[in-house]
Amino acid sequence: MFRLLVLAIPILLAFLFWLFIFGEGTYLGSTVVTFLYDRAASAYDRVKRLDSLSDRWHVALPLERALSKVAHPLILDVATGTGRLPLDIASGAGFAGHIIGLDLSTNMLREAQEKTRALSDAISLIRANALALPVADATCDAVTCLEGLELFPRPEEALQEMARVLRSGGVLLVSNRVDREAILLPGRAYRRDQIEGVLEGLSFSSVKVKRWQRHYDLVWAKLSGGPGE
Q: Count of domains in the chain?
């Protein structure tokens, strides 16, 4: 009995680590994920060691170029967290659009509000579910979601919602966990060929996948139906 207990304890601890730390509660539902992020909000940026310069170079600037022909773009940032992407975009020189940052965690949104207070004319923050976006059809010029897709209970439904609110020709930018990270998140992360197939099935074209961080790809796509398509 003692030997079984000695074997069981490490297995249980490893399982709990995977469930709550590595998987961030995703297999226990949105309520648990939100609870964990509410508790971690005040320390989130420090723990993640966010690199604003890297985000600016790899995400914000390419997005600005993709939207360069839109005079006043409306951007929806799903799972905005502490507002890292809205802050990087809105603080760019000459940005004349508006960004809606959406998240389920009240405390993460509170942190985002503090960080983006000086840019409140360009940024709105709302609490809402990624599987039921409170945005009208064909409204947004771009939809982004960084480090959030794998936390949704049904990622494909979230992508469907993002497609729904995009205008024809609108830009989608999402991150996707890859390599060992993806293997340990079955049903939450996609292989490259899988996410390309999912997006093409949702009427996206020009799908481009490139490595971003150590365990993430950035996936760019364009909703079909825009000029020249």
A: 1
